[in-house]
Amino acid sequence: MLNVPSQSFPAASSQQRVSSSGRSKVPLKPGRSLMDWIRLAKSGKDLTGLRGKLIDVTEEELASHNKRDDCWICIRGLVYNVSAYMEYHPGGEQELMRAAGADGTDLFDQVHRWVNYESMLKECLVGRMAVKPSTGSKDSSSTKGQKQLVIGVPVAEEREPSSKDITPRYDWFQTDTTITIVVYTKQKDLTSECVVADLIDGALRLEVVLGELSYLMHLRLSQDVQEHLSIQTSSGVGKVEVSMKKVSSHKWQELGEPLDSHNSLLKQNVSGIFFRKCTLVSKTPVTHDTKLLRFQLPNGTRFMVPVGNHVYLKSLVKGSEIIKPYTPVFMTLMPEHQDSTASKDTDIFLMIKIYPDGAFTSYIESLQIGATLYISNPGGQFRTSRIQDITDLYLLAAGTGFTPMAKLIRYALKNLAALRKIKLIFFNRREGDILWLDQLQHLALEDKRFEVEYVLSEPSAEWKGKRGRIETSLLSNVMSRSNNSKCFVCVCGPTRFTEQALGMLQQLGYCEEEIHAFQG
Q1: TM segments (predicted)?
Q2: CATH 3.10.120.10, applies to 25-129
């Protein structure tokens, strides 16, 4: 995909530059507020110009849409027509135009990577960047002289050979009953969460996430294997082993035929989004309008979703393909109550609020047990390395913004040696909207390091807890900070909530390195 040249963003003269008093915004015309944009997006008006169709966009096609009234922007491999959004953008038109007709991922991340652009611009989605031919790395056993198809630009492309080459290598061996592939990554902190494997119709797709890069193997296997596969990682030596069972005991002469992007090292933001068809196996009420859905990955798929990461759901709804991000949770907040039939690498649990006028969530609600939809690889910016030595963890969540906090709470209590306190400040409208209320109460009683503070904007007369909405004074009262503490704050909720929270945290003296905002 196209890359925008490195530059200061926003520009020094831009009204969106951050100053000591916070990020100033461009005054918007009357009728161009966030709520006005939401109303326009829900009006049914065609904001893409494609009448609901999703297309594969080439670099040339993207580059041609670079004008104020015809502006396409690519963010993380997805292309949006933001022409209609120009007048609603708080940072002004000129900031959007900096990425017109180009990949704006890096620029977007510099300014507001926390913004839930998938939700904000979902009605502007044109499609995804197309696969482009490129001379990627070769498989030493069977690809000599062939060219690979690479989604985006291989990091290793046109790079001089070096003894310090970071590209992983792989080998394979066999017995009468098994085929084993070994990938040597040179990454010492490799974990099972870094590996995504799909064995579908005789094609193996293995992706290993290495920081900001992804190594991809993609082969049509030369002979049949059983659907199930197993994965082992050795963090000390950075090794991944994938084992498959042969259908017959015949000796393989070669591993297989290379497919798109095989043996490539790619930047994650250009590696594309891969989906597989998953099956709904259970649906459990959480509140009056929120369900916990359990999806089972295909037999040949194995992956785990890292803490704070999301997946995309994709399905065809009323003739239109809809793609939407959700953050998986565990089956329960309490590990001892986990269903023994649930596996970390074969099941995905999603807590989804059903909106009566929401096309996608209404479709989700209508799904029967056994129905299928497509789920992507995990993705996200959060890394647990940022919180390894903290003492105090504060979580600001509104509504289903609680979902990334659920896994984070369990991870922190189990793995952070210096942790003294986790405090969840949970904002909702009414008491009946609080997700996993009983489990949160139980956890607070069981582990003294965990505290939860509920804040309701429309409480009943009997409510004895805090009332109102997010305010600087409220955060100041509930987020104590001692001289010898090392704090970290996570925020997730609707865009407006997150925006307000970040401004308030800045006023309270928290710096950028101490804050992470999840996509709401």
Answers
A1: none
A2: yes
